[in-house]
Amino acid sequence: MLGRAFLATAAMVATLFNAGAASAQQTLEAIKARGQLVCGIGTGVAGFGLPDSKGVWQGMDVDLCRGLAAAIFNDPKKVRFTPLSSSTRFTALGAGEVDVLFRTSTQTMLRDVTLGLRHVVTYFYDGHGFIVKKDSVAKVSEMRDATICLVQGTTNEQVTADYFRSINTPFKPVLYERTDQAAAALQAGRCDSFGTDASQLAGVKSTMANPKDWVILPERFSKEPYGAYIRRDDQQWFDVVRWYTTALIEAEEQGISRANAEEMRKTSVNPNTRRLLGVTPELGESLKLDRNWAFNAVRAMGNYGEIYDRSFGPDTQIDLARGPNRLWTQGGLIYALPMR
Questions:
Q1: pTM for the whole thing?
Q2: Model confidence over 56-100: pLDDT tens digits?
Q3: Sheet holding 193-197, edge to edge
Q4: Three-state SS for 236?
Q5: Residue 113 to residue 119: CA distance in whole angstroms
Q6: Of 202, 222, 242, which one is at a domain's C-terminal end?
Q7: Which residues, other chains included, contact 126 with Cβ-Cβ below 8 Å and sequence gap of 6+?
Q8: Are residues 104 and 135 in the same domain?
Q9: Cβ distance 204 to 195 under 8 Å?
Q10: Is 136 found in the same domain as 147?
Q11: Is 37 helix (H, G, I), strand (E, B) or coil?
């Protein structure tokens, strides 16, 4: 059933992609002419994208959108957020409703080769997990005949089904359109567990009425590398999004922060730093952006680590350890490709 649903979605996206390919050849030029980046984000998960008490979107994905706007326009406010559900995100991108998805979207083989879209570069590593009532079960294999909330259109549907099939244990899936709906159903007792990526579970737990009543089981059942998605028909736009994301990581590797970017731009003699911050123009010129594109992004939003800490760090309610999202020099998987 899941396979048929995926193929139907793939066919729909491919049709939209083929219909709009000619008009989408120059995404960057269209964004500049519009004067605004249109960024597809989630419908609301703490840490990645959730409106605060003033209605302002906060989180890692929305900050990545703002940083990309700063790289293009030198203004992080020149972005319009389009919240998209898991089941509509790829069709919306293929139809040209958004320029890019920064939306907790996992790279998989079938998504990569069948949707007419491209996963750009991984900016977050995660794995599928389950949240349950405290003291209910110690491990997932104990959840025989459990009712499990899942979000429709995600890799988590298949991961859950595959795992329970592999241990010959029945369960009852209950599908919801949005994460907040699944979380509400869990708290209301309509589900025994909610299965999704562990970082999203941490965000959900942080917004629950009584977070201490819930526990995220330690087991992980998949690899979930998140990356921006764009339409496959525009190599120039792929380069911009790819190297923008890489630049934020490179800035952290070099110790360039929101606070010191200006000073380092003026004083550093390191050729890599001078290239990244636009003292020499070749990186910006290669992308058809201003020479200060990366400098503007870091000065506006900070480096990768600053964005992570602002969304998940110890000063947030989520307080999610970086784990595999540490820099490679610190034992993690986050690694900037050479920018030269």
A1: 0.91
A2: 999 999 999 999 999 999 999 999 999 999 999 999 999 999 999
A3: 171-176, 146-151, 193-197, 128-133, 214-216
A4: helix
A5: 10
A6: 222
A7: 197, 198, 199, 200, 224, 225, 226
A8: no
A9: no
A10: yes
A11: strand
